[in-house]
Design goal:
With 267 residues, this protein is mainly alpha-helical. The chain is built from 6 helices and 4 strands; from the N terminus they run ααββαβαααβ. The protein has a 4-stranded mixed β-sheet with strand order 2-1-3-4. It is rod-shaped. It starts with a helix and ends in a 12-residue tail after the last strand.
Length: 267
């Protein structure tokens, strides 16, 4: 029990003590008066000389002050009780406000923790995706080496004006991913010029050699959005999106060599 509650309890008890004390003083004074009732007393009372209804009025008059006294004491005690209840309601409301603030802080901390965990998860996922992209880039380079030195033939083998587009010698360093991606864009650009010049001519190339290149680039493109910002920057620096579009264009425009074409004519 707090000091304030003890003080309020003491105040309520004080009113009750006051009531009993006042009642005792009243009865003492009344007894003194009634004990000295006689012809010369201040209150000459003779029960035998009073009618029953008169005596009842007399008793009611004696008890009336006590009734008012204890009504006053009860009112003061109830007032103290109501004040305590109001104080308890204020404390309860304050406690609710404190609990609300605590819950709000906990919710904010939970959101911050969830955001932190989400960021860490995103970083871990990005690192894992980066490793997969590095694997696909290495596979792309290996496959590009296999087609290095080959050519795309635009036109038939016996055409005198057929055009040959060589693969694998476009960039300064085709052994890294940026160089190989640059080569793909250059080759696609050369094929566009050749097709624009001779739109009816067919572009021949061994698709089984070139298809894995396009597949590797498209697999990287599917993972790009989930990669880390560093990997995104590297792919953007390599102009990766245009390399994917160039590979798709080459695969769409080139057809496999005819079966009746001699091996020596398959360049």
């Amino acid at each position: 029990m707090t000091e304030k509650e003890e003080t309020e309890k003491s105040a309520r008890s004080g009113w009750v003590v006051f009531g009993f004390a006042a009642t005792a003083v009243y009865f003492t004074a009344l007894g003194s008066i009634l004990g000295n009732s006689g012809p010369d007393s201040l209150l000459p009372i003779n029960k035998a000389s009073l009618a029953l209804n008169t005596f009842g009025d007399f008793v009611a008059g004696i008890c009336a002050p006590l009734a008012f006294l204890w009504l006053f004491v009860a009112t003061m005690v109830q007032s103290q009780e109501l004040a305590l209840q109001r104080q308890e309601l204020r404390l309860t409301r304050r406690e609710f406000e404190l609990n609300r603030d605590i819950l709000k802080q906990q919710a904010e901390e939970a959101r911050a923790q969830a955001a932190f965990i989400g960021k860490q998860t995103q970083l871990l996922e990005g690192a894992e995706v980066d490793r997969l992209i590095d694997t696909h880039q290495a596979a792309f380079i290996r496959r590009y080496r296999k087609v290095g030195g080959r050519t795309i033939m635009v036109g038939e083998a016996d055409d005198e004006d057929r055009q040959m587009i060589q693969i694998g010698v476009q960039s300064s360093d085709p052994l890294n991913f940026v160089g190989a991606a640059t080569d793909v864009r250059v080759i696609a650009s050369q094929l566009r010029r050749a097709k624009n010049k001779s739109p009816d001519k067919v572009a021949y190339f061994s698709k089984p050699h070139f298809q894995p290149l396009g597949d590797a680039l498209n697999e990287i493109a599917e993972m790009m959005d989930r990669s880390s910002p560093t990997m995104k920057a590297k792919l953007k620096e390599a102009n990766f999106a245009t390399a994917v579009a160039a590979a798709d264009y080459l695969l769409a425009q080139c057809v496999d060599y005819p079966k009746n074409l001699k091996l020596n004519d398959r360049l």
